[in-house]
Amino acid sequence: MQNINRLVILTATVAFFGFVAGAGPVSAQTKEARGTVTAVTTSTMNVRVGTQDMAFFIDSDTHLEVRRAAKQIQEAQPGAKPRVNDFFEAGNPVLVRYREENGRNHALNIERVGSAGSANPTKLAEGKVTAVSATHLTLAADGHDMTFAITGDTDVLAKGASKATKAAGGGTPLTTFVHNGDMVSVSYKEASGTMTASEVRVRVVNR
Question: Is the pLDDT of residue 129 over 90?
Fold first, then answer.
């Protein structure tokens, strides 16, 4: 059985603060863009994605993954209402999950990443797991089945996982954290007819 060599575990909670609300269920139409911030205001963010400039609209439904930064701002400015430009600035590499609505890109989730990455936007799908093994994952998503290849570069983010699991050296198979009936979102790229998962995020565990 092939195992996931690089397993990243998301610990119990992600903070929500100020005007930022938790992101709702991600639809099959949700997209991802990874690039470098070129400008940011309280309600917009411009990101250079490869050779393309993209503008994103930010509102109370946008989730920012900036827990540590939010705590530092609240300690420095008690009672202050955090804003998106308190946490992001030009030059930051970011990953934006967004949906096209009314002719503009509505940012659902923004997080800082290590690098601007590939110029090609990653696709995103959400659905219920119908089959899972160490090398493949199948979802019922948007009315049809989607099967993704799991490789040594696939990251797995599972809510509530322990630090001991992360320290296992990547020897833990996908089936330890993802099960039939779980609701998951999958970031993936498609090439030569194969959809390869770069990230599997467990949203709701089937109990």
Answer: yes
Domains 31-112 and 123-204 share a fold: yes
- For the chain, give me the number of helices (H) and strands (E)? 2, 12
- Let me know: does 130 contact 61? Beta carbons within 8 Å: no
Q: How far apart are CA 179 and CA 74, in angstroms?
A: 39
Instruction: Tell me the HSE value of 21 on the side-chain side, using a 13 A CA sphere.
Output: 6
Q: Determine if the pTM surpasses 0.85.
A: no
Can you read off the two tokens belonging to residue 83? 């804003």
Q: pLDDT band at 147, cuts 50/70/90?
A: very high
Q: What is residue 84's DSSP assignment? A: G
Domain spans of the chain, in order of start:
31-112, 123-204
Q: What is the pLDDT of residue 65?
A: 80
State the first-to-last Cα distance of the chain, in angstroms, to the nearest integer: 26
Between 174 and 78, whose confidence is greater? 174
Q: Which two tokens stand for residue 158?
A: 């599972």
Mention every residue, 6+ apart, whose C-beta is less than 8 A from residue 49: 33, 34, 35, 116, 119, 121
CATH numeric code, 123-204 = 2.40.50.320
d(Cα 126, Cα 22) in Å, to the nearest integer?
16
Fold of 31-112: OB fold (Dihydrolipoamide Acetyltransferase, E2P) (2.40.50)
